[in-house]
Amino acid sequence: MKKLFMLFLAVVIVSFGFSYTTYAKQDKIKVAFLYIGPHNDGGWSQAHDEGRIYLQKHLPYVITSYSESVPEGAPCEKVVRDYIHKGYKVIFGTSFGFMNCLYNVAKDYPDVVFEHCSGYKTRKNMGTYFGRMYQVDYLAGLVAGMMTKSNYIGFVAPFPIPEVVREIDSFTIGAREVNPKVTVHVIWTNSWFNPVKERSAAETFIANGADIIVSGCDSPASIEAAKKAGIYAIAYDRDIHNMFPKTVLTSRAWNWGVYYVKVLKEVHDGTWKSEKYWGGLETGIVKLGKFGETVPEKVKAYVLKREKEIKEGKFKVFEGPIYDQHGKLMVKKGQELPDKDKLSLQWFVKGVVGSIPH
Amino acid sequence: MDHHSIYISLLANTVKAGTILLFPTIGEIFAERAGILNLGVEGMMLIGAFIGFIVAYTTKDPYLGFFAGTIAGGIASLIHAFISITLRGSQIVSGLALTIFGGGFTTFYGQKWINMTLNNTLPTVKLPILSKIPYIGPIFFSQDLIVYLSYITVLVMWFILYKTTMGLNLRAVGENAKAANAMGISVYRVRYMWTFFGGLLAGAGGAYLTTSYAPFWLDGITAGRGWIAIALVIFAMWDPLKALFGAYLFGGINALQFQLQASGTTIPSAILNMLPYIGTFIVITISSIIVKTRHVRPPKELGIPYIREEK
């Protein structure tokens, strides 16, 4: 009897264990995304949401969910902890402001993977990721430099932080490579998303004679102002060629999906490791959008040639000689601005009209 | 582009930005003239901006949107009128509550409208002959119909205030409600009417913002313009004509902050963004001094509830 009972027990344990493991295999990895704005903001958060949908489509073993307009600080921590209690194993915080929130929570849940976009704090279970958008900005600058007639380009910029200064600088380097007469004028809106200010800034540029408006902010308001005035624009965040086929010369677009798939594959295979990821054009995380209807073949060919060279590592955007806006030599000929200086960039290159508050 | 056309287009923009402030300022002047201080201008503007936007968006008719936003502002003001006239509650608390309500209401119902853009904004209508006048024409007479409506509003309201019995009654109610009552004027009726009028114009300012100047929806899109309008009432010394100058001055400051940056100024952008609010301080200080020396003063019974039974 006792033996029979032991046998029974063994069968139960084995079958339970077996069913448990099969259950675990069938179990999908739950992935949560935090957005700073609405998922359909037409810009930054929407680009991440498109990445989430891409991930969902490409990997059958993930289930994704998102929270939009998440406030930074304490409310963010609550959202993340709620997700973890519901069994979410991977958390993507898609805005700089979520850094400390993720950093704090990550300490309490070592078995959960945290991925933070555009920050600098990491842990064993928390990595950061970003893309070398400046390469795309440079390419867009080439297009703008060849398309402008007034040689006055207006850049509607959010905050005077290194990320944005880098965008303006690389754009200007591109524009002046093909057209040394170009000046790039900067207006700070001091906000990532404020359509009212973005539109006012664009209208001011137009009044001053700009024939190309570059949007560095997250709403399409400045593009719409350009469309209304019948001039060109260069978009940011997403490829919005279809919405403005005549106005938008090209877009500097994020393509987060490729990175999200990479991370989830690694998590699934158990090979994921925390890192500071800064992918360039060759990874696909950043890309140049479709060209506008009016961009001539000659311009396209030049830009695509440079794109190829950047991908192959033959051309570097921040290679000297580079002068600052007052004419001082900042990067010597034959040298390249190192990554750490790119990440803390706080000066404008020659050709930029504007100032960085210190 | 030459300097002339830069300044002309900047000034034309100034008139547009000024119009957003002009309507609520005129409205508040008349409410205050009747003795009702309404601090809910910001809230009424937000409601007007929101309703104006969604009506213009769904009907594709910006005029209908403007009209609907105006009415919505008027309806919102009745909350304040009921509390401060009928219930004789604190006008300050009630007005602040209206501002908070307007913010909450539009944020809550505005969720799904965020980032939608109005393609049919108020069209520019160049006035014949007038728009051909050098400088004046392109600045003042190459605008949309609502801007022209604001010119007419200023003139008509100035006339009503100083040249008609209606204006006399209104001023009497704000100066001495008891005496006005003795003269046979219905204080409640006058106060209700002009508070409602103030709400209509606050709504109009908000609706003009979203059907012309900033044709999209965003939480708190008015960005403190309602408060600037209240400050402008003091600057204008409760006079519709002076309100015109005040509103354009602030419209100009707004345009200036972007122009200075575009021309490559070294003034930090954060300071430039603060200009309209710093301007408010300066204007209030200067006009307070003028008010003192020139014996101009607010309506005597501003903010004081009227109780008819106390005879």
Tell me about this structure.
The complex is a heterodimer of chains A (358) and B (311). Chain A is of the alpha/beta class and 358 residues long. Chain A has two domains: 28-131, Response regulator (Rossmann fold), CATH 3.40.50; 133-253 and 290-353, Response regulator (Rossmann fold, 3-Layer(aba) Sandwich), CATH 3.40.50. In chain A, 41% of the residues lie in helices and 20% in strands. Chain A has helices at residues 2-26, 44-58, 74-85, 99-108, 133-147, 162-178, 195-207, 221-229, 257-269, 297-311, 339-342, and strands at 29-34, 62-67, 90-93, 113-117, 126-131, 152-157, 183-188, 212-215, 232-237, 248-254, 276-279, 286-288, 322-323, 329-331, 352-353. In chain A, 50% of the residues are buried. Chain B is mostly helical. Chain B has a single domain (3-293), classed as ABC transporter involved in vitamin B12 uptake, BtuC (Orthogonal Bundle). Chain B has twelve helices and no strands. Chain B has helices spanning 3-33, 41-59, 62-86, 91-110, 136-140, 145-163, 165-175, 177-182, 187-213, 225-235, 240-262, 269-293. In chain B, helix 2 (41-59) crosses helix 9 and helix 10 (225-235) runs parallel beside helix 12. Chains A and B meet through strand 7 and helix 7 of A and helix 1, helix 11 and helix 12 of B.
